[in-house]
Write a structure and sequence with these properties.
Helix content is 32%, strand content 24%. It has 274 residues and is α/β, with parallel strands linked by helices. Helix 4 runs parallel beside helix 5 and helix 6 packs parallel to helix 7. The longest helix is centred in the middle third of the chain and has 14 residues. The chain starts with a strand and ends in an 8-residue tail after the last helix. Homotetramer.
Length: 274
């Protein structure tokens, strides 16, 4: 292995993928080893990301990019329909996956964890790489000890494919670890319009807003007698996720097994597995 971490980017044609390519090219400790993207195959990865040409040509074939052992880490920001297969392919080639795509089932995460361990490599699936978003989740999990009644509202652009978002699901999971199931609302409540109360999760509701012009926001609203508490995080630019992605690429080289959730890497630990 070279002194630099050799990184491949899946989804290099997309908006997040291009940001990852920029980050890798500008980080002295990294080397862009490959880029995968169907819509921009044949283009120079640096030029496609708005930087000078870097000499790495985007390919439409992930296995072609990983074959030969010249890649240490695969960063995947693709779509839910391909992320699982991409991750499994990377691990099979001995490449450590850092995945920002959502939609994995608990069974898939467990399977990929076992596969990582069998190959002696680390991996990460993270619904969100934003430090602020991770803190929002942590604060919500702490607040629910005192405010057990809550609802989550998440906002994204109208081109987002999954609802609710991976971030809101992860937030709900962390809250449920503390609170357990608690049925909220009036027992005789009736929805006059299907879906009006949002998606049901362990007794509370998650609402997904999809509108043009929206980037990524989430708020957790807690209610108690005579008061409410709101914990909210707003993202305005994809570049805000890159410090987290950079940390993930570095940390994934240091442990074995698949970690679910970037929060487990924030304090220098990888002790909690999926």
């Amino acid at each position: 292995m070279t002194d630099k971490i050799r990184v491949a980017v899946a989804g290099a044609s997309g908006k997040m993928g291009r940001e990852v390519v920029k980050m890798v090219l500008e980080e002295p400790a990294f080397e862009l080893a490959a880029a995968v993207g169907r819509t921009s195959a044949g283009q120079d990865a640096g030029a496609a990301a708005g930087l000078p040409a870097c000499g790495v040509t985007i390919t439409g074939d992930l296995e072609e990019a990983l074959r030969g052992g010249a890649v240490d880490v695969l960063v995947d920001f693709t779509v839910p329909q391909s992320a699982y297969d991409n991750t499994k392919t990377a691990i099979t080639y001995g490449v450590r996956p850092v995945v920002g795509t959502t939609g994995f089932t608990p069974e898939q995460i467990d399977e990929l964890d076992k596969l990582c361990r069998s190959r002696g490599i680390g991996g990460l699936i993270a619904p969100n790489f934003s430090i602020g978003a991770i803190l929002m989740m942590r604060f919500a999990a702490e607040a629910v000890r005192y405010f057990p009644h809550l609802e989550i509202i998440e906002y994204h652009g109208d081109r987002k494919l999954d609802a609710p978002s991976g971030t809101s699901i992860k937030t709900a999971e962390l809250i449920s670890e503390v609170r357990g199931e608690l049925k909220q609302g009036h027992p005789d409540e009736e929805e006059k319009l299907e879906g009006a109360r949002g998606g049901y999760y362990n007794g509370f509701r998650i609402h997904s807003v999809r509108l043009p012009g929206v980037f990524a926001q989430q708020e957790v609203i807690f209610g108690a007698f005579g008061q409410t508490l709101r914990i909210r995080h707003d993202s305005y630019d994809r570049a805000g996720y890159m410090p987290g992605v950079k940390t993930a690429v570095q940390k994934v080289m240091t442990y074995t097994g698949l970690v679910y959730g970037f929060e487990h890497l924030m304090d220098g630990g990888e002790e909690k597995r999926s």
